[in-house]
Amino acid sequence: CGNLDLDLEFIGSGGSGTVFRGDMKGRKPVVVKVSRKASENSVKREAAILIKLEQKLVNNVERFVDSCDMDIGEGATYFAGVFRPYLNPPEASSIATIKNDATGAIKAKASRQLMRTVIEMVNADIALTDLQVLIEPDTGQLLVIDLTEAETLRLEQGLSFHDKAVVSSFFGEALAFVEEAMTNAPNKQIRDSIRDAALDGVK
To answer: Which pLDDT value is given to residue 16?
Structure first.
């Protein structure tokens, strides 16, 4: 793919295509999303948004590396996007599913990162209508993935009604992750630490 020579290992598939782990000699693995050529424009749009977020120094969002056409024979042409980082499985898809530690520090860290990233993304004129995250349960490292449903805002022109609805939905989805984790917390101390970390992320 471009200048990258990748060994692919199947991870899973969804509406936007098939996802692989891509291994390169001497380098950290990457994520490879392969979709039909009909979906090429949406992948390119996602790549442009990820490049913008990287330029705006938004944290905890996957990064675009490269893209290419893939000819697998029999007249079938696919479009591949390469992204980083690859998180070691098994990743958690929500804060609540992270195993509780004694102090709730891992869940608190993930909550702080999530709310900080939401603020940074909106400040960069980007909001999501389908927030998806992956979290390394041992470290609490959070990554926002799959920006195919991202919306571009126009903050400098003042938020339109549509923009306000999108931002409200984006914050609502993020808060739902935090609230679910608080609800499932084993005690008040951990519940409060998750809440305080989320508020700290907003600040």
So the answer is: 67
